[in-house]
Design a protein that fits this description.
Number of helices: 11
EC number: 1.4.3.19
Strand order of the largest sheet: 6-7-5-15-16-17-14-18
Shape: globular
Structural class: alpha+beta
Distance between the termini: 41 Å
Number of domains: 2
Catalytic activity: glycine + O2 + H2O = glyoxylate + H2O2 + NH4(+)
Protein name: glycine oxidase
CATH architecture of the largest domain: 3-Layer(bba) Sandwich
CATH topology of the largest domain: FAD/NAD(P)-binding domain
GO biological process, one term: thiamine biosynthetic process
Keywords: Oxidoreductase, Thiamine biosynthesis
Largest sheet: 8 strands, mixed
Length: about 375
């Protein structure tokens, strides 16, 4: 008999786990306190850029991100085919720009180690750089070009993923108000605000910035904290086309096929406050003009904020909880939820099916890794 899996959280991680588990034959129910994709997932710029986002070196987290990028072409095509929903998926490559000669050594160091891990990146400058991206400021000295990186339009992709889940037989319950784990020993029982109880064999907790709420129930430290990320978007239909994702030390700019350019991100600690601040958006605007001069004087037509679930050590929580083996966590993905969704879904399904999971993954991303620090 197929196991019944309950997933708390209808963001991209929860929906991805639901889709993968359903494809493997499990009965799956997703419980969402609000609306699917309404938190960090829908606010994301949709960058699939492990080389640009991980600049220090090829640690286990980078390798996880890179593996997920390799899964994406087939993953997104499955979602598109099953859902019938169109969404933008663009293999534009990226440019990480530098303004000063002192930064070139750092770019070259990154190019060298990234070449060993599948990047065909190269340093471009001068006429070649401005041929690739004509609208860039002439103050830009050089850039690390990484052809392998892509981006996706997150709002449409979340909608497609939700639809693919529904079509494949995932039961999705939204607007539950609150969702609380009340039993996890002999079976799983989850209670909603109206006292409806949902029963299952296993639980996957994918509650993003709210994952810490399970700490007291499970008797386990779950140090996941909300980091407010503020983003803005410009209309660029009449401007020179921007062909690549552009990263710089203060943020990023991503041009979308719908004639907009997404700019982010201004981050701060504000609890669960998702309001947009003038200071946060002004910081973005000041840097945008230095990257693309055509943005000088333009006002964003839209600004928004999302809560990014950051763990204490910066790495996500993926896998079973020690002492509560019916409970698995898939949370704490910080800025990489969109990128890491296919690999997280694969790993969660592998754990549930008792398949082989690399020891490096089990140790580095274990939800129980902070237990020894809790006195």
């Amino acid at each position: 008999m197929s196991q019944n899996i309950i997933i708390i959280g209808g963001g991209i991680i929860g929906l991805s786990c639901a889709y993968e588990l359903r494809m493997r034959g499990f009965n799956v129910t997703v419980l969402e306190a609000r609306r699917c994709g309404g938190q960090a997932s829908g606010a994301a710029a949709g960058m699939l850029a492990p080389f640009s986002e991980n600049t220090e070196g090829p640690d286990a987290f980078f390798r996880l991100c890179q593996f997920s990028l390799l899964l994406y072409p087939e993953w997104q095509e499955q979602i598109r085919s099953i859902s019938g929903v169109h969404f933008e998926y663009a293999n534009t490559g990226s440019l990480h720009i530098a303004y000063h000669a002192a930064d070139l050594l750092s770019l070259e160091g990154r190019r060298l180690w990234q070449r060993q891990y599948g990047s065909s990146g190269e340093i471009v400058s001068g006429a070649e750089l401005f041929r690739m991206e004509p609208a860039l400021s002439r103050d830009v000295l050089a850039a690390l070009y990484t052809p392998e990186e892509s981006h996706i339009y997150a709002p449409d992709f979340i909608r497609a993923l939700e639809q693919a889940c529904r079509i494949s037989g995932v039961l999705i319950k939204e607007e539950l108000g609150s969702v609380r784990l009340v039993e996890w020993d002999r079976h799983i029982a989850v209670s909603a605000a109206d006292s409806t109880v949902f029963y299952g064999d296993r639980l996957v907790a994918s509650t993003g910035a709210w994952a810490q709420e399970l700490s007291e129930q499970l008797g386990l430290p779950i140090p996941v904290y909300p980091i407010r990320g503020q983003i803005c978007a410009y209309r660029t239909e009449t401007q020179p086309p921007v062909k690549h994702m552009v990263f710089f030390n203060q943020g990023y700019l991503v041009a979308k096929a719908n004639g907009t350019m997404v700019c982010g991100a201004s981050e701060d600690v504000a609890g669960y406050d998702t309001s947009v601040t003038e200071r946060g958006i002004e910081r973005l605007r000041n840097w945008n003009n230095k990257v693309f001069p055509f943005l000088e004087g333009q006002l964003p037509f839209h600004s928004w904020a999302g809560l990014r679930p950051a763990t204490q050590d910066g790495y996500p929580l993926i896998g079973p909880v020690e002492g509560a083996e019916r409970v698995l966590m898939a949370a704490g993905h910080y800025r990489n939820g969109i990128l890491l969704s296919p690999v997280t879904a694969k790993l969660i399904a592998d754990f549930i099916e008792n398949r082989c999971v690399p020891s490096e993954v089990r140790e580095m991303f274990s939800p129980s890794r902070f237990a020894n620090a809790w006195i």
